[in-house]
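call fold(seq) -> C-alpha cells
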Amino acid sequence: MSDFQFQRRLMRAGCAMASMAALGIGLVHAPAFAQAASQASAPQNGEERASTSDIVVTGSRIKASGYTAPTPTTVIDETSIQANAQPNIFTTIAQLPSLQGSSGTTVNTFSTSSGQQGLSSFSLRGVGAIRTLTLIDGQRVVGANVTGVPDVSLFPQLLIQRVDVVNGGASASYGSDAVGGVVNFITDTRFKGLKGNIQGGISKYDDNEQVLVQLAAGTSFLDDRAHLVVSGEYANEDGVGGGDWGIGLAGGRDWFKQTSLIDRGVINDGSPRYVLRDYAQAYNYTKYGLITSGPLQGTAFDQNGNPFQFNYGSNGVPARDGTTNVRGCFPGFCLGGDLSGNVDAGRSLQSSIERINTYARLGFDFADNDELYFTFNFGQVKTQNQPVGGMNKPGLTIQCANPFVPASIKAACATAGITSFGYGTSNAALGNTQVNTDRRQYRAVIGAKGQFDFLGTEWSYDNYYERGTNYTDIDVSNILLTNRFNDAINATTLNGAVVCASAAARANGCQPLNIFGGNPSAAALAYIMPENGPRQRTRQTQDVISINISGSPVELWAGPLSIAFGGEYRHEFYRVKADPYGVGTNFQPSEPDYPFDPTLLPGGNNWYAGNYKSGGGAYGVKEAFFEADLPVLNSDALGRANINGAVRVTDYSTSGTIWAWKVGGTWNLPIEGFRLRGVTSKDVRAPNLSELFAAPVTTTLPNFFDPFRGVNVLAIQNSIGNPNLRPETARNTTAGIAFSGASWLPGLSVSFDYYKIKIKDVISSLGAGDIVNLCFQNVRPETCSAFNLNNQQGPNFINVQAFNLASIDTSGFDIEASYQWRQPLGLPGTLTLRGLATHVSKFVTDSGLIGTIPVDSAGVNTGNTPDWKFLAIQSYENEKFSFMIQERWFSDGVLGHQYVVCQPGTCPASTNNHPTIDQNFMPGAFYMDIGGTYNVTPQVTAYFKVDNLFDRDPAKSPFFVNPALYDVVGRMYRAGVRFRF
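ret:
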C-alpha cells in the first residue's frame, strides 16, 4: 500500500470515527427535504437532458427520487430560474403560491424604524419569515436581522442548481424555525468551465433601471481530486422612489386615489360606521400649513407663506367653534378639494438595492467517495427607501405674537380677540426622510462528507462547521428631533432679533423656524434635523457544528431499513447599538456626533421616527435526532409502502428541553403511477434573540389605572425582552395523492395535498393595560410577575414584554401539475406545462387577549393569504430558441371578515368585534409575463423577459397599497446574454 493510499484511508476512517464519537455528546443534525417529482434541467447549449432519476431531492438524510416521501416538495430547477430572468433569485421563488407574506424590495418600503427595509426573506403558509427555515446546501445561514431571518440577497446565486421548497413542518429533521417549511438552495459544487450572465432592465415608466453581472468558474486539479469553484456578481436596481405631494406617484403612475377607510364614529344611527372613499383629504394639515381651529380656521399658506382660503372639498365649511371640525365632511376627512398636502404619494414603491456577492468552494477527494471541503462567501446589500412624504405635524399651537406669523393673520387675531390658534402642516419644506441600510455577511464552512463501510453495509456521513457573521448598519437622514422642532417653531423677538422663545433651547443652539410656507432658514434646518440622524449598528454571529450519518443496516421483508442520525450544536449571538438620541443615553459624553442637549428627553425616543434601541444577547442549542424509513409492503398485488418517522430532542440554554417528532408514510398503489402520502408532526420555533433580549425602553405613565385598588397611579413602563419565553409548538399535518412516472401517460405529474397547521404558545407583544388586566382577571397568571403597581421599595412599574399567548390555526390545500410533451405535433423540441395553486381555507389568529375574538384572515387581500393563489407556466424549447408564458393570479377578497356590510338605513348597531361598513371588497389580480431565448451559438444565449405584460395596476386600498400581493411597479422589460464555455 502506498503512503498516499494509507493517508486517504486514515483520513476517511478519522472522519467516520469523529462522526460516531460526536453522537455521544449530542451534536446531531438531520436536514430533511421530502422527495418530489422534478423535471430535469433543460438542455444547455445542445447538451443531453439529464434523466429524472439523476436528480435527488433531499427530502431527508434517507435519499430517494420521485414523489416517495411524505412531505410535498416543490422543485425549482436552474432552467426555471433562468427563464424567469429576475435580477434576484428571491423574486422567482417568492412567486410560488405556498409562499405567502415574503418580504423583498417592495415590502417594508413604508417603514422607518423596522430595520427590515430591503430584507429578502421567505414566508411559507403565511405564518411569517421567522417560521420558515432557509438553508444553503442543507446548512443554516446567519440571520441578517435581529429576528434571525437570513437575507436571500446575500446568497451566491449563479451557482444555484435548484431550490427545494418543503411545504410542511420539518423541525424533527432540521430543528427550530421549520414550522411553515424549509427553502433549501442547492449549489453546483462540481461545476467546471466558465459561465456568466449580463442583464439589464427598465420599467414602462422609465424607472427601476436594473443591471446584473454574474460570472462563475470551476476547475479540477491533482488528478481530478481537487475541485475549485468561484463566483462573483454585481446587481443594482434603482427602485421606484417617492412621487409628488397629493396623489402623483413616481413615473406618472396614476392608480393612486388616496383611498381611506373613514370612521364616522357613530355606531347606532342605522348607517355604517366605516365608509370607504377615494380622494380623502385629512383636514388637520396641509402641504405648507393650515390653521385648524379657532376663528381663523380654514386659512392655509402657500410656499411663500401667503395666506389663502383652503378648499376642503365636500363643500366643507370650517366650524370655527374651538374644535377642528369641518361641517359637511366626515370626521377627520373631506373628499376632493385641495389634495396637495397628502403625504402617501411620497412613499417609495420599491427600495433601491445594490448587491455584491463573492463565493468560493475548494474540495479535495481524499478517497474515491470522500471529500473535505471549504466554502467562503461574502455578500453586501445596500438598500434605500423613502418611507413617506414630509413629516406630518398636526395639532400644533402657534402664538399670534410669533414673529413669523404674517401681518394679516396677526391683525385677524387681534380682531377675533385670540392669542393663539391650532395649526397643522405636512412639513413639505423640510424635505423627505431617507432610510439607508447596509448589510454585510461573512460565512465560512469547513466540512467532510462521503461514505464508509460498517459491519458489511455502506454508510454516508456529512459533517461541517459553519461560522457566519452579519453586520447591519441603518442610517436615517433628513428627519427632525421633535423637541427641537417644538422649540424652533415657538419663536419670539428679543433685542430686535427673531429667536427661540425658550432660553434653555437658545443656550443649546436653537434656531427659529418659520413654519409658514416653504422657506425655512438653513440654520433652522440644521438645528432641528442634524446631519447625524438615527442610526443602528448590529452584529450577529452564528456558529454551527453538525454531524450526520445515514445508512441501511439491515434488509427486511419489503426492502432495506434506512436510518439517519446525528447531532448539532448551535450558538447564536447579537449585539446592537443605536444612537443616544433614540436610546436615551445622550447624557454620556462618549458620542461626539450626538452632543449633550438638555432639551431632549433623557429616556430617548427623540426622533420623529427611527428611535432604535441598543441591546444584545446570546443562546446555545444542543440537538440530537434519529430518523428511520421502514418498508412495510413490496408486492405487485398491494404495491409498495413505507413508514417514515423522526424524533429530535433539543436543549435550549434559555428555555430548556423540548421534543419534536414526525410520523408519516407513502404508499405506491398497485395502480401504476399513483402514490398516497401523509405526515403529521410536532414542530417548534424557539424565541429569537430580539424577543428574548430586546433592548429596554422606559416611558412614564402618569395616570395608569390600577384595577386591584381602583385608583390611578404613576407608573414606569419598561419595554424589555422576555428571557422566560417558551418555544412555540405546532401540530402540522399534510396528506395527499400524487401521480407521476406512469408508462401509460408519460410526462404527466400531478399532486394534491391537504395541509393543516395549528401553532400554540405563539409569541406576541402585549401593552401595559393588557398585562395588568390579564393578571387581574386571572386569565394569564404568568403576567402577574411583570408588574408592581403598589411598590414599597421603589417606583411602580410594568414590564411590557412578549408572552406565549396567541395561536394560529390555518389549513388549505396545494395542487401541482406538470406535463412534458416531446416533439409536440411533430415539431422538434419540447412543450412543458406546469401549474401550481394553493387554496387557504382558513387562517385564524387568536391574540389571547380579553375582549377579542379570533380573526380569520384567509381571503383578506390587505394581508398575505388570499383564498386562492395560482402560478402557471407554458414553455416551448428546441435547440435554437425557447418561448415562455407565465400567469400569476390570486382571487378576489375582502378588507376583513369582521365587517358587517350594510347600507344607510339598514345597519345594525356596530360593535368593536363586528363593525359595520358600506363596502368590503378587494379585487384579485391577474398578471401575465412572457420571455424567450435565442441560442446565438452553442455557448451564447440571448434572452428577454417582460413582467406584468398588460401593466395591471394594483387595487385601491385604504392602506395605500398592499405590495405583498399586488404588483406596484408595473410593466418591466429585461434583456440579457448568458454564456457558458
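The longest helix spans residues 3-23.
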